[in-house]
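Protein fold
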Amino acid sequence: MAATFACLTASHYSPQFSRTDAAMPMGCILHPALRGQSRRPVMEVCFSYVRMKYLFFSWLGVFIGSWIIYVQYSSYTELCRGHDCKKIICDKYKTGVIDGSACSSLCTRQTLYFGKCLSTKPNNQMYLGVLRNLQGVIKCQMEEIVPIDLRTELEPRKETILFDKPTRGTTVQKFKEMVYGLFKAKLGEQGNLSELVNLILSVADGNKDGRVSLPEAKSAWALLQLNEFLLMVILQDKEHTPKLLGFCGDLYVMEKVEYTSLFGISLPWIIELFIPSGFRRSMDQWFTPSWPRKAKIAIGLLEFVEDIFHGPYGNFLMCDTSAKNLGYNDKYDLKMVDMRKIVPEMNLKELIKDRHCESDLDCVYGSDCRTVCDQSKMKCTTEIIQPNLAKVCQLLKDYLLRGAPLEIHEELEKQLYSCIALKVSANQMEMEHSLILNNLKTLLWKKISHTNDS
C-alpha cells in the first residue's frame, strides 16, 4: 500500500500517538494506519518537504531584502549627488570663476565636508556638514529648473551658462545696478532697495577685504536667484532665521537646526509606506514636547510670520507650511528649516499673472499659495486667498489644542478659528491680521511667562 502521511504543525500533535512517533521530524505525523511500518522513506520525504519550505522562505527573504537594498541604493544615488556638486563648485573655484567665504574650506583645506545626505530632490542637494567648528546644513543646486510648474518649483535660478554674470569688465557700480534691478523685479518698488543692495555687497565680500571681486560677484549673483538665500540675508538679524555660515558659488551653508520638525519623530521611509496617514498624524501628536514648550515654539512661529508680513523689503508668502519645514533648538526657540517655498509676493504675482487655468486647482504654488481661476478669461488672478497667518493657525490648531490647559482651552480654540477664517480680501485685513496675531501671542505668553519653559 502506498505510504500516506500528513504534515502538520506541532500544535496538531495528539497524545494518543505512540512514543515512537516522537522520533518523527517536527511537523510530520504518520497516518495512524501506517504506524509500525518503516519510517525511513517517510522521514526522508518529510525532511525534503521541510527543506523545500525553508528554502522557499529563505529565497523569498533574500529577494525582498535585495529589492529593498536596490531601491534604497537607487534612490540614494539619484538623490545624493554631493560629489558631483563639490566637483562642479571646486572646478569653478580653482579656475578663478567663483569665490566665496567657504570656498577654501571646501576645496583647498578640506575642512568643510559633506556628511549625512538629507536630499529629497535630485536638483536640491542637502547634506549635514561642519564649517569652522559649527554644525551646518550644506545646500547646493544641481541643474537648471526648466518650465515653471506653479505646483512644484518656483526658482528659475540658473543662467544658460552657469556663473556667466556679471561679465568681465563690469564695474562695482554696474553690479549694484544689476542687483537693484533684480530686487525691483522680485520685491517691487521699495524705498530702501539701495540699502538692501549695500547689504548684499557686504555679504558678497567673502574674504572681508573691503572690495567685491568678480568671482565673488558671480557667486553672489547666482545665490540671489534663490529665494531662501535672499530671505536669510534680509532676516539675518532675526531670531528665527537660520544664520548663513558661508557660501561658494551657488552652494551655501546655513545653521543646523537641532529638531527638524514640530513633531519629534522620524521613521525610515520603508516603515512610512505602511503607516496610514491618520495613524501617522496621531503618532506625531504623541511625540510633541510638553504643552508650555509647544506654546513657546508657536509664539516663535507667530513672530516669524510678523517678520515677513509687510516687512522692510515687502511681503513674503509661505507657500508650504508643513511641519517638516519648521524646527526648534534645545531651548525650544523656533527655527526655520527650509525657506525655499517662502517667496516674495511681487515675484509670485508676476509669475502667476494671466496663467491659463480651467479650475482653481491650476492656480496653486507649493501646497498653500492659492489664487482664483477667472472662468470668464480662463486665467489665474493674482490675489492670494489666504494670508500666512491663517495657514500657520491651521497648522497650529491641533498642535496647541492637544494638552492645552483647561482654563484657556476655549479661548485658544476661539482665537485659532478666527485666525483660520482670515482672508486677504477682507476689509481692514491688515488691522485684523495684527490684532489676531497679537491676541494669540499674548494669550500663550501669559500662560507660560512664569514657567521654566519661558
Summary: The longest strand covers residues 124-131. DSSP finds 14 helices and 14 strands in the chain. Confidence is low (pLDDT under 50) at residues 1-27, 70-76, 144-160. The two ends are 86 Å apart (CA to CA).
